[in-house]
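Hey L., structure's done. Input below.
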Amino acid sequence: MEFTCKICGNKEGNKFYTVREMQFGTRDEFVYCQCSSCECLQITNPPENLSKYYPKEYFSFQINKEKYLKEKLNIYRDRYALGINNFIGKFLYKKYGEPTYVGWLKNTEVNLNSKILDVGCGFGKLLFRMGNTGFKNLTGIDAFIERDIFYKNGVKIYKRNLSEIRDNYDLIMMHHSLEHLEDQHAVFKKLSSMLESGKHLLIRIPICSSFAWKTYKENWFALEAPRHLFNHSLKSLNILADKYEFEVVKTTYDSRSIQFWGSEQYKKDIPLMDERSYFVNPDKSIFTSEEMNEFENRTKQLNKDGEGDQAGFFLKRK
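Output:
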């Protein structure tokens, strides 16, 4: 089988893997190619109708409504973490630590007035929380939502593709959305045109330069066939960044223990949404509490060692 890598153009020595759709358990098969040069994993036979694989039960389309009190307490904690002093926030910050998203934003030099775009945001859960915290210029886009959404706190979510956006931004975020987009070169070219020199791009993606991919191959949970059209390596992500005038200024690892238990389930032919899945029925899963603790501990160590299967890339436009 011959396949030309869509990232670096290499044709020689590539490897192929047959991967099943296992989140919803259709078990439809798709062939992925790993480039022998840039190491990027990419689907070779994407379905004609991808929307079929984004049902209403898909992760990004779920709204986990916070209880009113928790939502209010999050506002105090988030504002304190951003330097807005308040007693309640100080107490919560000391007890629970810095909110994860605030740590991300501190690497991007934005403030409450910055113009921020979240690409592939689903219903915009993160943007909604940021809007409650006090960010004033927040926009999200997602091609697979049913209709535009306008929240009372000013957050705007549009049913649009990246190619339809014309504005410039201070920060563009892509939380596990880059891997779902078809033409990676067109995506990076567009992103580069939307950010002036010195502005930031935050990309969080699964990464195949990881222990989990090397261990589980076709059963790696984060392959997410066929929704993930690309699963980048460190090398392939840096190729795109350099070509389109970005500098990778920081890389963090935030993989979760699902890289182990999800992949182990797939090896045993247990889909994520199956009644036997830890995700659906943790009390009835195939794993003991000791095994789950071990998965958690190994995950923490892999993140420290730079071998986790999810990474955050903080890029600055040159």
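The chain has a mean pLDDT of 94. The first strand starts at residue 15 and ends at 20.

-- N.
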